[in-house]
Design a protein that fits this description.
about 90 residues; mainly alpha; rod-shaped
C-alpha cells in the first residue's frame, strides 16, 4: 500500500515541478507579456482542473480503502465473538 501512496505523491510532485518549470520557461520566452500571461492563465486553469480530478480520484480510492478496512474489522469482530462463545461453551 505504501508504494501506491508514494507513487501518487511522486506524480503530484512531478506535475508541480513541470508546471513551475514551464512557467519559468514562459517568462523568459520571446513573446509579448500579454500573450505570455494569457498562456499562463490558460495552463493554470487546465492544471487546476487536472489536480482537482486527481484529488477526487485519490479521495474515492481512500474512501474505498476505508470501507474495505471497516468490513474487515467487522468480520474480525464477528469471528472473535464466535470464538469467545465457543470457548465459553
Amino acid at each position: 500500500m505504501a508504494r501506491d501512496e508514494s507513487v501518487g505523491d511522486g506524480l503530484l510532485w512531478f506535475l508541480l515541478g513541470a508546471a513551475v518549470g514551464a512557467t519559468v520557461a514562459l517568462l523568459y520566452a520571446p513573446q509579448s507579456g500579454k500573450k505570455t500571461r494569457e498562456y499562463i492563465s490558460k495552463k493554470t486553469d487546465e492544471s487546476r482542473e487536472t489536480l482537482t480530478e486527481a484529488g477526487r480520484e485519490m479521495y474515492d480510492r481512500g474512501r474505498d480503502l476505508f470501507e474495505k478496512g471497516r468490513e474487515i474489522a467487522d468480520e474480525a469482530a464477528e469471528i472473535f465473538e464466535r470464538g469467545r462463545k465457543l470457548a465459553r461453551g
